[in-house]
């Protein structure tokens, strides 16, 4: 547990020290949401209906931008070999890195979403549902993204390849998160959608580190 916490704190310090990457993710999130009303026109009813989807899509794309920093730097300087050879199981190390990635990416996006929801004129009653959905679903984005980041480690153009591979994996959180917001707006209920979103995250917690660790071992061989 001490090694897990130590690796988590190390990743957190590195991410905060290199604040430009975190700022890039948040800046992209804000700009993507702000540009949508200019593209589709300032129609309140239309914005209110698709506002939840806009925020979820922007959050997914912002999360994709940050996947490269999960393992690329450690792979380049040899740190990943040291982590793999340490007493800490590689699966647990992956979980610690994913937790730090979520704390510096998914959590800030979640905290920023209520303010941006007002910008797209999202129904006030749906804003807590949106924030709760992002809070539940964004850990799955980090965990599923780690699998793709490990698979594309050492590729010539990992950014493009990561985007192509990870977006299909992000479809379940996108569908359930957006459906929860629409359910609140239409009165159809949100509980089922949030439970399904939580199920995706709970399934990713044990399975994603196993798949990621296997891909990392293959990349290091």
Plain-language structure description:
The structure is a single chain. About 85% of the residues lie in helices and about 0% in strands. The protein contains ten helices and no strands. The two termini are about 25 Å apart. The model has no long low-confidence stretch (mean pLDDT about 85).
Give the helix/strand layout.
Layout: H1 2-17, H2 19-40, H3 44-65, H4 72-77, H5 79-85, H6 90-119, H7 127-151, H8 158-169, H9 171-186, H10 191-220
The average pLDDT is 85
Order of helices and strands: HHHHHHHHHH
Beta strand %: under 5%
Strands, total number? 0
Q: Strand count, sense and closure of the main sheet?
A: none
- The rounded Rg comes to 18 Å
Number of domains: 1
- The class by helix and strand makeup works out as mainly alpha
Query: What shape does the CA trace take?
Result: elongated
Uncertain spans: none
Helix-residue proportion:
over 70%
Number of helices: 10
How far apart lie the N and C ends?
Answer: 27 Å
């Amino acid at each position: 547990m001490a090694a897990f916490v130590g690796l988590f704190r190390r990743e957190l310090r590195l991410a905060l020290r290199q604040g430009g990457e975190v700022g890039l993710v948040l800046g992209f999130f804000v700009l993507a949401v702000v540009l949508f009303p200019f593209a589709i026109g300032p129609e309140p009813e239309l914005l209110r209906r698709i506002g939840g989807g806009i925020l979820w899509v922007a959050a997914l794309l912002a999360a994709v931008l940050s996947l490269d920093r999960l393992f690329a730097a450690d792979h380049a300087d040899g740190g990943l070999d040291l982590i793999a050879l340490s007493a800490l199981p590689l699966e647990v190390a992956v979980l610690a890195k994913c937790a730090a990635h979520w704390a510096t990416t998914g959590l800030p996006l979640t905290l920023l979403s209520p303010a941006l929801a007002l910008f797209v004129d999202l129904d006030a009653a749906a804003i807590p549902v949106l924030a709760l959905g992002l809070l539940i679903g964004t850990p799955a984005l980090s965990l599923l993204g780690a699998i793709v980041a490990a698979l594309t480690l050492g590729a010539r153009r990992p950014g493009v390849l990561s985007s192509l591979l990870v977006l299909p994996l992000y479809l379940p959180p996108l569908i359930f998160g957006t459906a929860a917001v629409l359910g609140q707006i239409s009165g159809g209920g949100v509980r089922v959608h949030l439970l399904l979103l939580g199920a995706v995250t709970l399934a990713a917690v044990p399975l994603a580190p196993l798949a990621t660790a296997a891909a990392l071992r293959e990349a290091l061989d």
